[in-house]
Amino acid sequence: MIPFRQAVRAWFGISLQTFGGPAGQIAVMQRTLVEERRWIGQQRFNHALNYCMLLPGPEAQQLAIYIGWLLNGTRGGLVAGRDPHFPR
C-alpha cells in the first residue's frame, strides 16, 4: 500500500498534467503510475484498462478509481475518482 498523502499528491499531479480527453488522461496515468513511480505493473494496468473499455461510461475515470482503490482502498478510489479533470 502506498502512503495516502503521497498518493493524493500523485493524483493531484496527474490532474494538472492531463489534457486531450480520455486518451491523454490514460497516457499520463500510465506514464506516472507505471513507468515513473512503479506503483502498478504494466500488465495489470493494461488488464484494468481493457476491462474499463468494455464498461459503459468514462474509461479514464473508471481506471483512475480502480487504481486508486487498488493502492489505498476505498478512500484512494474516492480521491482518484474525484479529480476535477476527469469527465463525470
Please describe the topology of this protein.
Layout: H1 4-17, H2 21-36, H3 42-54, H4 59-81
Summarize the structure.
Helix content is 75%, strand content 0%. It is an all-alpha fold and 88 residues long.
State the helical fraction: over 70%
Q: What is the first-to-last residue Cα distance?
A: 27 Å
Annotation field: number of helices: 4
Total beta strands: 0
Overall mean confidence score, pLDDT: 89
Overall 3D form: globular
How do the SSEs run, as a string of H and E? HHHH
**How many structural domains does the protein architecture include?**
1
Uncertain spans:
none
Write down the Rg: 11 Å
Features:
4 helices, globular, 75% helix, mainly alpha
Protein model, in words:
The chain is an all-alpha fold. It has one domain (4-81). Helix content is 75%, strand content 0%. The chain has 4 helices and no strands. It starts with a helix and ends in a 7-residue tail after the last helix.
